[in-house]
Every structure is written in C-alpha cells, then in structure tokens.
C-alpha cells in the first residue's frame, strides 16, 4: 500500500499543514512532516474535507444500466469528492429483498471507488401496500439501515407508522419522499405563477408539507427516527423547525438544485429542469438556505438521478424527473454557503454519515482515522460540460454554467480514487 | 413604383442629385397623360384606373380628376395591391399587405389602365397583371406611368409615359407626390443621365 | 418579424395588429372567384397533429392552400412516446423533408417550444396541452374587432374552465396586449389564483357570472368537459350549467351591443344553451370563417419573406 504525504493542506479550513496517509488511515498530521517512502502531493491552496457522504443517490443498476451503473455512478461520486453513497431502492428489480441489496452492495465493492451503501425499499415493489422484508435487508451483508420508497411516498399513514416502529429493532430510519399523491396527480412542476403561465399541472407545496407534518407527528408518537428526503419548500422548513423544537427525532436533507434553481427554469420546457419534488420559488430557496445554515435542515444530499437521453430529449410531460448531482454538489455548496468549510463538512459528510450509521466515514482527518477524504481547490472555477461528466447520463441542469471549486483528489481508505482531478480508473 | 426598390430605398453613394421634373412639370405631365388616355380610349368609356401602391394610387386619382375636368366623364378609380404577387418576396423581410379596392362596378369586361409612378424592370407590372387576373377578367389592360427609366427585364411596355429618363443601372429615380410625400418632384440620384 | 408563433406573448401590439390587418385583406380572397394567392408558392407547410382536431387542421390546411403552399398532413395521434418515434425524430424527418413551417397540435404543453429547437422552419402552435392556442386568440380578436370596431377598451369576460384552457391563456395575453380588459369567470376550482400575475396584471377574476354580464362587451364561453366533475372541480353538470352556463335570461343581462363567442366545439346545454348559440349575438360561425383568414395572415407573415 502506497503512503501519501500531502503537503501544505488546510484541514477543513484550518491553517495549512501536512498530512500523512499510510495503511489506509491518517498516520500523522502537522507541519513539516517527512516520509521518504511516501508519494508527495503539494496541496498548497487546497482544503481537505472528510470524504463526502451522499444519502440520496440513484445508481440505476440493476435495470437501467444505460442510464448509470454502480461503477459509473461510483466514479462520478469519487470525482465529486464522495467516499460513500447511499443507493436508492427504485431499481428494477426493486431493492426490496436481501438479494437485491446484496447485489448492489457487492457491485459497489467490486467497483471500489466509493462505499456503496444500499437503501432498502419500505414496501414491496415500492407499491405502498405491504412492508418489504426490512429485517432481512438489515441482516444481510449490505447491513441496510435506511429504508425508502423514494420516488414514491409512503402515503398510507398506518403503513408509515408501522414502518417507523418496525425499524427501531435494528436502529433503522425511514427516509420519506414527502408527496401526498392525491394532491400531485399529473403534476409536472411547482404549482404557482409559472405553472399557470406554462399550462403545466402544478405540484403544490402543501403536498410535501402535509406529509412532513403528518410524519413528524407519527415519528413523535412512536418515538422513531425519521428522515425527510429532498425538502423543497419554505413551509416544510417551518414544520421541521417546529418538530425539532419539540424534540422529534427527525433529520432532513436538501438537494443542491433546490438551493440554486427556481421554477422559472421550466419556461424553456427543457425537461432537464424537470425534477421531483420540482424546482420551487426564490422565497423557498431563501428559506432552504437559511434552514441549512441554521441546522433545521441537516444535510445536503444530491438526489443524483441519471436519465438516458431519450427520457429527457422529449416533451416535458413525458420526460422522467431527475437531475445529475454527484459531480457538481460540492461546487453548488461552495457557491451557496461560501468557504464555510466546517459547515460544508458537517452538512455533506459528518451528518449524513451519522444518519446512515456509516462507520469510518464523516470523520475529520486526524491520526488514526480511516483516510476517507477529499482535496478541494476552492479557487478553481470550471465550466460544466455535460459530455465531460463521468456519469453515463448527461442530464445536468448546470450545463455551461461556471461553478466554483474543483475536486483535486479523493482517497478511499488511503487509496486515491481521484488524482489531479481525474478518476484513477 | 420602381423596381428593384432596394435601389430607391438605399441612400445613393454619390451625393449627386438632379431634379428631372419639378412640381409644375409633374402637373403638366399628368395633364398630358390624361389627354392621351381620352384620345386613345375615345373618351374613356368603360375604363377603370387602378393605381398600384404606393404612388400609383394618387396618380390614378389625379388622372381621373383631370379626365373629368377635360371631358366631364367619371372614370372609376381603384387600388390594386400586388404585394402577394411579387416574385421577390423571399428576398426581403415580410412585406406588409395593403388593401386592394376595386371600384363598385368591378373590372370585368372593362378597359383597365394600371397606373404606377416609375416603370423600371417591369416586374411590378408583371405582378399586377397576375393580381388582376385573380380578381376579374378585364377586356383589355393598359399601363400608364409617370416615368419610364428603361432597363426592362420583361417584355413589358407602357401605353402612356409621362417622361422617358435615360438612366444608368446604378442610378435611382425617386418620385415624390404631394399626397404621399408632401411635394411633387422627380429626382435622379447617383449621377447625370448618360 | 417573429420566427415562430408559440404563445400569445410572442406578439407585441404592433405585430398583432399587423396580423389582424393582413387577415382583413386575406378575408377578401374568400369572396373572390379565384380563392388563391401565389405568395407561398413553393413553400411547404406540415400539419403535425398529435391530437384529433379536424376543424383546426382543416382551417390551417385551407389557409396554407389559399396561399399556394404545399401542405403535408402528418397525423400522429397518441403520444409520440407511445408510438415509438420521439418528437425529436419526427422533427428531424420534417426537417429533411424541407418543411418551411410546422403547424403542431400536441397534448403536451410546451411541445411546440421543444419542436422549435429541432427544426429550422417556423413553428406555429395550433394548441398545446393546457397551455396556449395563439391563432385561436387571434381569430377571436379579429372577430371582436370586426363586430365591435375596436379592441382597445373592450371588456371581455372569459367564462369557464380557465385552468385547463389553452384558449383562455392565449386570449388573456393577446387581449391585454391589444388594450382590452379581461375578467375571468368560473368556479374557483377552475381559475388559478395567480392567473393575473402569471399572464397579465389587470386581469380580473370573478366567481359570479350574473354580476359580470351587464358590464361586458364580449362574453366568451369556454368548453367545459363533463369529466371535470369526476375530479371534483364541480359537483354536477347541472349545477355547473346553473351557475356558469349562458342561457337566454342571462344573455338578456348583456348590454345591447355585446356579442357571445365560443371557440367550439360546444357542449350545448352545458356552458351554452342552443338558444344563445344560435342567436344573432353569437359569432360562433364567423369565428370559424375568420380562422382561415387569420391563419393565412400568420403563415404569410412567418413565411412570406426572408425572416432569418
């Protein structure tokens, strides 16, 4: 195993120092380190962060390998600074059995670019009718702890209550896609002025807020952990703030795109901007940013959702919802939060690792800690070219935008997955 | 209307301008054409004057007025817009369509005299003949112009010509009339006639 | 000059007025023995219809043929996805065929906008989903202007299912541009609350038809699909007709000069009674005839010159 001596690196925004990685762990930190056997990287101007952890990734394998595979998604993740991603269950077949989650977990190990932690479905086939074998998935080699029907809401309140209760046995958490389905039938975009103008069926904010309100009350009632996926509205923030003040064990995520893009993007009718939940208004963005800074929203999660060209190069109503996110998330965070490195580390690494219960991830570089980390050049600016992305898909909403920050290197347990801004394999 | 209009609308490179007809000349020329029409049509019976926009329209009205002054006959006047019949539509941004206004008696079986300001390539007249055949079936068609500047591109000639002006292709002829431009005048831009 | 006509918002007052004026000239052709003009000779207009709409297709077809364009009717009923060929592939096919204009009717809002990215020719929106139908708004404006002599200062009530109506959206945009005042009338479930902000500030909303009728110059009744009651937009067809249908007693509340419009096809007995539809105030038949003239004007203005 190669040792790496990273010179003049700022550890999570602190004064520059040196960092020695040996045998998969951080061996030493401090100024003026020397290690004759180590490969030396000059990291002047770079910031080391604990490897990013994404709680919400769609890797599409098995089923839609034309859009993404575990390997291509892992590479995209590593290039985005991630060392662990949680793979959502809406594959084909659905990850609702021990067999499927173990397959995804194994594919992740084989790719070896990030730790791929499968998320299990809450209900069989994501159909919202009966519980999947949550315990079997928890006991499998994949050790599933997060369960989600993402893409679908667990709308039945009794089923949701049971799921929240049941996963307490293995310290699991239900990650809810909050969308009251009766209020979003045929919905295409945020319900508001723009949807009225464009004649696209609206997805009202209340459809999200009503489910979050119900579920925080359910979680409180049964004393369970609840995680809310991709919070998108100012009203949801208020519900979460209230719930957290009452001591409900609820965590919440926001996506990079909901922190940056508004529903006005739909005016082109280009489905690259179609996503679920939909892009909201500038007021929602302001509330989400404030909630993220304050901690009402705990983490940034990408909802990386690759789609094949034919699923996006079509009429808006026929397009699949979703956007790429892994390779641009840190840039958006930097753009939105500025160089608040401790906050970025908390929202993109430590807190998601805690929620997911991922050992060895989300830990700041310090002697003895597994060397899962990434090096960021905050001064770099890059133009996003869809064709240059590592994902198999091209549906980035940031095409040709100039974004700050660039991932220079990523280490997974001491081995580089990205060097000089390029994937090692 | 001279043709191609680009030669009229673009400002002349040479600043040289020559007045070919002054206001009094225009008036004399219109009178003469009116007399010629009366003579050639034996009193302008069963005759209709159709002006081609823009300046053919006031010219047709003046001719009708002079004819009725000279002989006390009323010659119906109408407007024939040829925009949709032009052969150069695709060379320009879309042209606004003007009204076509035929006299209430119609033109079927009548002698129609088309009236325009400048006869140049003949393409405007060609378009007018096509337009005419779509709106009726005159017994005969004649052409009256204030100025013939030559350079025909089609086998067309005028029956009544106010003034023949020999020109070079690079030159342009500009007719102004009181009704449309505030004053009567015919000017030659871009040099003297060769 | 505009290149595509996708929305009523594409037209400023000058361009919209030019279209109406041109349509007035085009209308004279209908009264001639030779109902044809050579202006678009050699141009190809494709009618690309993903929805059945015989009346709109025939109207565009007649308009294109009267201008001597070659017309290709491409009926692609059902969604392009369901048929297998994507809209983009269809667009590339039309492009290869040399279409100078594509007139598109599509069940998906925004499909004409997408098409405009993929073809070099002009795209005319002939109705997209629940979005817009700009030539319908133009023919409605033309009809109002020829009946009432002007558009500026007119008060127009648009009554019915505004939420799902492409006719209403295009009319609100165009009429506001041309200086008319619009009041939208219908049950609150069928009128988006932010419609004025979304389309044209100054647009009023009223839920009481009887209160609006005495003050309007034009009342435009929208088609209301009976299926809407199955989705709880209103309790029953009978209640809808009672509250928002135009019958003879309601028509008598209109000022003497006011006209009654309907984009068709009508649900007689639902939003309009036969007595009203067939009354002299009704412009429903004129609207159809004016449709051809207005579409001739639109095609001429888009294709009649070199507008690239």
From TrEMBL, chain A:
Positions with a binding annotation for Zn(2+) 2: 150, 177, 230
Pathway assigned in UniProt: Pyrimidine metabolism; UMP biosynthesis via de novo pathway; (S)-dihydroorotate from bicarbonate: step 3/3
A UniProt-annotated Pfam family: DHOase
Binding residues annotated for Zn(2+) 1, in chain numbering: 56, 58, 150, 303
EC main group: hydrolase
Catalytic activity: (S)-dihydroorotate + H2O = N-carbamoyl-L-aspartate + H(+)
Cofactor comment text: Binds 2 Zn(2+) ions per subunit.
UniProt keyword annotation of Zinc present: yes
Active-site residues (renumbered): 303
Any one GO molecular-function label of the UniProt entry: dihydroorotase activity
Binding site for substrate: 58-60, 90, 276, 307, 321-322
Keyword set, alphabetical order: Hydrolase, Metal-binding, Pyrimidine biosynthesis, Zinc
HAMAP family in the cross-refs: PyrC_classI_B (MF_00220_B)
Role according to the record: Catalyzes the reversible cyclization of carbamoyl aspartate to dihydroorotate.
Family statement: Belongs to the metallo-dependent hydrolases superfamily. DHOase family. Class I DHOase subfamily.
Name of the protein in its database record: Dihydroorotase
UniProtKB/TrEMBL annotation, chain B:
Residue window of motif PRPP-binding: 112-124
UniProt entry keywords in alphabetical sequence: Glycosyltransferase, Transcription, Transcription regulation, Transferase
E.C. numbers: 2.4.2.9
Pfam families recorded: Pribosyltran (PF00156)
Gene3D superfamilies: 3.40.50.2020
SUPFAM superfamilies membership: PRTase-like
MF term (GO), any: uracil phosphoribosyltransferase activity
Superkingdom classification of source: Bacteria
Catalytic activity: UMP + diphosphate = 5-phospho-alpha-D-ribose 1-diphosphate + uracil
Domain Phosphoribosyltransferase: 20-166
Main EC class the enzyme belongs to: transferase
PANTHER family named among the record's database cross-references: BIFUNCTIONAL PROTEIN PYRR
The family this protein is said to belong to: Belongs to the purine/pyrimidine phosphoribosyltransferase family. PyrR subfamily.
Role: Also displays a weak uracil phosphoribosyltransferase activity which is not physiologically significant.
UniProt protein name: Bifunctional protein PyrR
Source organism: Micromonospora solifontis
Gene: pyrR
TrEMBL record, chain C:
Limits of the Aspartate/ornithine carbamoyltransferase carbamoyl-P binding domain: 3-145
Catalytic activity: carbamoyl phosphate + L-aspartate = N-carbamoyl-L-aspartate + phosphate + H(+)
Top-level EC class as recorded in UniProt: transferase
SUPFAM superfamilies, sorted: Aspartate/ornithine carbamoyltransferase
Keyword Oxidoreductase: no
Keyword Transferase belongs to the record: yes
Pathway participation: Pyrimidine metabolism; UMP biosynthesis via de novo pathway; (S)-dihydroorotate from bicarbonate: step 2/3
Residues bound to L-aspartate: 83, 166, 223
Entry's Gene Ontology molecular function annotations: aspartate carbamoyltransferase activity
List of residues binding carbamoyl phosphate: 55-56, 105, 133, 136, 264-265
Residues in Aspartate/ornithine carbamoyltransferase Asp/Orn-binding domain copies: 153-302
EC number, as in UniProt: 2.1.3.2
InterPro entries named among the record's database cross-references: Asp/Orn_carbamoyltranf_P-bd, Asp/Orn_carbamoylTrfase, Asp/Orn_carbamoylTrfase_sf, Asp_carbamoyltransf, Asp_carbamoyltransf_Asp/Orn-bd
Alphabetically ordered keywords of this record: Pyrimidine biosynthesis, Transferase
SUBUNIT field: Heterododecamer (2C3:3R2) of six catalytic PyrB chains organized as two trimers (C3), and six regulatory PyrI chains organized as three dimers (R2).
Entry's family note: Belongs to the aspartate/ornithine carbamoyltransferase superfamily. ATCase family.
Purpose of the protein: Catalyzes the condensation of carbamoyl phosphate and aspartate to form carbamoyl aspartate and inorganic phosphate, the committed step in the de novo pyrimidine nucleotide biosynthesis pathway.
Identification of the protein by name: Aspartate carbamoyltransferase
């Amino acid at each position: 195993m190669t040792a790496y001596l990273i010179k003049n690196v700022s550890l999570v925004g602190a004064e520059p120092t040196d960092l020695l990685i040996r045998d998969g762990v951080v061996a030493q930190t401090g100024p003026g380190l020397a290690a004759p056997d180590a490969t030396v990287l000059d990291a002047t101007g770079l910031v080391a962060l604990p490897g990013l952890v994404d709680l919400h990734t769609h890797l599409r394998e098995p089923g839609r390998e034309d859009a993404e595979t575990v390997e291509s998604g892992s590479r995209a993740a590593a290039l985005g600074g991630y060392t662990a991603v949680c793979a959502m269950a809406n594959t084909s077949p659905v990850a609702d059995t021990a067999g499927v989650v173990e397959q995804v977990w194994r594919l992740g190990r084989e790719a070896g670019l990030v730790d791929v932690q499968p998320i299990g479905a809450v209900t069989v086939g994501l159909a919202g009718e009966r519980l999947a074998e949550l315990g079997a998935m928890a006991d499998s080699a994949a050790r599933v702890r997060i369960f989600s029907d993402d893409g679908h809401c667990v709308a039945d309140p009794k089923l949701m209550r049971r799921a929240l209760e049941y996963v307490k046995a293995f310290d699991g958490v239900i990650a809810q896609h909050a969308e009251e389905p009766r209020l979003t039938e045929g919905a295409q975009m945020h319900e508001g002025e723009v949807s009225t103008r464009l004649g696209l069926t609206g997805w009202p904010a209340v459809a999200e807020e009503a489910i979050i309100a119900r579920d925080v009350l359910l979680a409180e009632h049964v004393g369970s952990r609840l995680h809310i996926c991709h919070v998108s509205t100012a009203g949801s923030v208020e519900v979460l703030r209230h719930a957290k003040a009452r001591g409900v064990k609820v965590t919440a995520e926001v996506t990079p795109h909901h922190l940056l893009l508004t529903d006005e993007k739909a005016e082109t009718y280009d489905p690259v901007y179609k996503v679920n939940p939909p892009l909201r208004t500038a007021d929602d963005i302001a509330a989400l940013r404030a909630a993220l800074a304050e901690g009402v929203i705990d983490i940034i999660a990408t909802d990386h959702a690759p789609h094949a060209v034919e699923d996006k190069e079509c009429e808006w109503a026929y397009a699949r919802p979703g956007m790429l996110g892994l390779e641009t998330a840190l840039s958006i965070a930097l753009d939105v939060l500025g160089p608040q490195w401790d906050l970025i580390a908390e929202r993109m690494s430590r807190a998601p690792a805690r929620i997911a219960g991922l050992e060895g991830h989300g830990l700041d570089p310090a002697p003895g800690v597994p060397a899962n980390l990434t090096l960021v050049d905050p001064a770099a600016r890059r133009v996003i070219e869809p064709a240059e992305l590592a994902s198999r898909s091209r549906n980035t909403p940031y095409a040709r935008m100039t974004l700050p920050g660039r991932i220079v290197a990523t280490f997974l347990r001491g081995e580089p997955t990205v060097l000089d801004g390029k994937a090692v394999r | 209307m001279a043709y191609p209009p680009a030669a009229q609308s673009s400002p002349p490179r040479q600043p040289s301008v020559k007045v070919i007809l002054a206001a009094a000349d225009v008036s004399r020329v219109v009178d003469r054409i009116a007399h010629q029409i009366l003579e050639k049509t034996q009193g302008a019976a069963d005759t209709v004057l159709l002006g081609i926009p823009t300046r053919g329209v006031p010219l047709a009205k003046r001719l009708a007025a002079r004819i009725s002054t000279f002989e006390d006959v009323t010659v119906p006047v109408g407007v024939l817009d040829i925009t949709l019949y032009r052969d150069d539509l695709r060379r320009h941004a879309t042209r606004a369509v003007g009204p076509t206004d035929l006299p209430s008696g119609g033109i079927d079986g009548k002698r129609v005299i088309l009236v325009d300001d400048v006869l140049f390539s003949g393409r405007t007249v060609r378009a007018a003949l096509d337009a005419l055949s779509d709106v009726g079936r005159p017994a005969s068609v004649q052409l009256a112009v204030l100025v013939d500047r030559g350079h025909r591109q089609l086998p067309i000639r005028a029956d009544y010509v106010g003034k023949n002006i020999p020109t070079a292709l690079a030159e342009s002829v500009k007719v102004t009339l009181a009704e449309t431009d505030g004053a009567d005048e015919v000017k030659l831009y871009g040099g003297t006639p060769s | 000059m505009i290149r595509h006509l996708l929305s009523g918002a594409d037209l400023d007052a000058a361009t919209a007025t030019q279209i109406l004026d041109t349509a007035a000239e085009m209308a004279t052709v209908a009264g001639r023995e030779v109902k044809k003009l050579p202006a678009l000779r050699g141009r190809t207009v494709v009618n690309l219809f993903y929805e059945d709409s015989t009346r709109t297709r025939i109207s565009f077809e007649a308009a294109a043929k009267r201008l001597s364009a070659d017309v290709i009717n491409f009926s692609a009923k059902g969604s392009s996805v369901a048929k297998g060929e994507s809209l983009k592939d269809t667009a590339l096919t039309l492009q290869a065929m040399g279409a100078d204009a594509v007139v598109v009717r599509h069940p998906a809002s925004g499909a004409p906008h997408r098409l405009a990215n993929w073809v070099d020719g002009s795209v005319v929106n002939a109705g997209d989903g629940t979005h817009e139908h700009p030539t319908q708004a133009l023919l409605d404006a033309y009809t109002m202007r020829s009946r009432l002599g002007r558009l500026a200062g007119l008060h127009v009530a648009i009554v019915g299912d505004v939420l799902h109506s492409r006719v209403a959206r295009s009319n609100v945009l165009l009429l506001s541009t041309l200086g008319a005042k619009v009041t939208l009338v219908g049950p609150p479930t069928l009128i988006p609350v932010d419609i004025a902000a979304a389309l044209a500030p100054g647009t009023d909303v009223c839920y009481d038809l009887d209160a609006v009728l005495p003050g309007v110059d034009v009342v435009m009744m929208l088609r209301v699909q009976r299926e809407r009651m199955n989705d709880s937009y209103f309790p029953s067809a009978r209640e809808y007709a009672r509250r928002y249908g135009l019958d003879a007693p309601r028509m008598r509340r209109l000022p003497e000069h006011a006209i009654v419009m309907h984009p068709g096809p009508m649900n007689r007995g639902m939003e309009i009674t036969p007595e009203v539809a067939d009354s002299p105030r009704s412009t429903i038949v004129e609207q159809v005839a004016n449709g051809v003239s207005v579409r001739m004007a639109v095609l001429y203005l888009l294709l009649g010159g070199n507008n690239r």
